[in-house]
Amino acid sequence: MKNLLLTTLMLAMAVTGMAQNEKRGMNSLVEDYTRQSEDTLVVYTPNTVIITKDSCSYTVNIKGEYNSYLYDINIKNTIEPSQYLVIKSNGIEFGDNDTIQFLAPESATFSKNSKENRFTVKGSEGSEEYSFSIIQSGNIKENKTVYKATDSSWNFEIPFINKKESIISKDCPFRPHSDFSIEPTFGMGLVSATGQGEDVDLAFSNGSFEFILDDLVVFSYFTTRRSSLNCGFGLNWRNYRMTGNKRFIKDMDGVSIGDYPDNANVKFSRIKIFSLTLSFLYKYRFNDNIGLGLGPIVCFNTGGNIKTRWSVDGEPAKDRQYNIRQTPVTVDFKALIYVKPFSLYFKYSPCNVLTHDRGPEFRSMSAGILLGF
Question: What are the C-alpha distances in Å from 6 to residues 2, 19, 138?
Answer without folding.
Answer: 6, 20, 53
